[in-house]
Amino acid sequence: MGTTSQRLISLDALRGFTIAAMITVNFPGLEKYVYPPLHHTAWNGLTFTDLIAPIFLFVIGVSIALAYSRRLDQNAPKAELHRKIIIRALKIFAVGMFLNLMPDFDFADARWTGTLHRIAFVFLFCGLLFLHTNWREQAWIGALVLVLYWLAMTLIPTPGVGEVMLEPGVNLAAWIDQQLLPGRMWQGNWDPEGILSTFPATVTGITGMLAGRLLLSKYSPNEKANYLMAAGLLSSALGYGWSLTFPLNEGLWTSSFVLLTSGFASMLLGALYFVVDILGRRWGTGVGVIFGANAITVYVLADVFALFFYGLLFGNQTLNELTVNAMISAGFVPKFASMVYALAFTAVNFIPAYILYKRKIFIKL
Fold it and tell me: Does the reported pTM lie above 0.90?
């Protein structure tokens, strides 16, 4: 396997811009004033917002391939790598629980799933898989998981319902969560980061590992960019075709959703790799690189800062309500005012990211 010691600015930037986009869509100025692309789809379909989480999981997969290929080439003991992967996954999960429990820390009503929880599981499964399989085996495992998930969701009737259902709260994935998940679920009787849907989400990480393997190959840089784009186009086409029978759905993380979003991620990485790393045109990438250097830390800080920016009361209004309503009164379109506040909040989170980056502090959860 060929390796490279040179960091991919394109990958760092993609990671950072994805986190920035995640913060922006998670914290609108006012929830009732949001442009449709900045909302998750109600159920089936795909918006800009629905692309963010799978792109981040894809980037995690790429990063696993790049980081652990170097460690394996250095003959690092696998037992040591196992320990580090497991400990890091546990730390990410623990931080996710901390965010879920803030600010009341009511363990009786805790939610045991979430974005960081899913990241932890995907990192754990993909990291261990990478240490013990080659890229062909990873591809076959990913394909098998997607097919089995599709068959399970479309052929097994939901217990208690007596028929196959793909609607919210009454599908097989929701039923499994209702039986096995402790605490509360995000949508009452179902959770978008539930147990069964974590398996296809892991495949999103596997597609990233395959892209990372390509970047480590002995192909020329131009060939790598071309193959990333071609593979992404093919994956997107297959995902769209599959969606005609197994709809695109982030809440279920359907097999078609995996292929389509991984395809988009591959094409985006290929384009950035060509422009940034091959052509050397790095204008504007600095913001992404800074956000990406401490991506999960910034994500966590955003939730902490939100206690002030979305919870501080001025009279009978929170700071975000006061600000957005004032902008609307000044003549701003409500949805635009809400988006401006979200972007301003994202910019606030850039400040600690910049300080950490300049001081060369990189917090690895």
Answer: yes
Here the tokens at position 285 are: 């990438």
Report domain extents, the chain: 9-281
Radius of gyration of the chain (CA): 21
| AA letter at 288 | G
Can you name the residues that pair with 314 across neighbouring β-strands? 317
> Within a 10 A sphere around the Cβ of 157, how many other Cβ atoms?
12
Task: Tell me the three-class secondary structure of the chain, residue by residue.
Answer: CCCCCCCCHHHHHHHHHHHHHHHHHHCCCCCCCCCHHHCCCCCCCCCHHHHHHHHHHHHHHHHHHHHHHHHHHCCCCHHHHHHHHHHHHHHHHHHHHHHHHCCCCCHHHCECCCHHHHHHHHHHHHHHHHHHCCHHHHHHHHHHHHHHHHHHHHHCCCCCCCCCCCCCCCCHHHHHHHHHCCECCCCCCCCCCCCCCHHHHHHHHHHHHHHHHHHCCCCCHHHHHHHHHHHHHHHHHHHHHHHCCCCCCCCCCCHHHHHHHHHHHHHHHHHHHHHHHHCCCCCCHHHHHHHHHCHHHHHHHHHHHHHHHCCCEECCEEHHHHHHHHHHHCCCCHHHHHHHHHHHHHHHHHHHHHHHHHCCCCCCC
Digit-by-digit pLDDT tens for the chain (365 residues) are 444 446 799 999 999 999 999 999 999 999 999 999 999 999 999 999 999 999 999 999 999 999 999 999 999 999 999 999 999 999 999 999 999 998 888 888 899 999 999 999 999 999 999 999 999 999 999 999 999 999 999 999 999 999 999 999 999 999 999 999 999 999 999 999 999 999 999 999 999 999 999 999 999 999 999 999 999 999 999 999 999 999 999 999 999 999 999 999 999 999 999 999 999 998 889 999 999 999 999 999 999 999 999 999 988 999 999 999 999 999 999 999 999 999 999 999 999 999 999 999 999 88
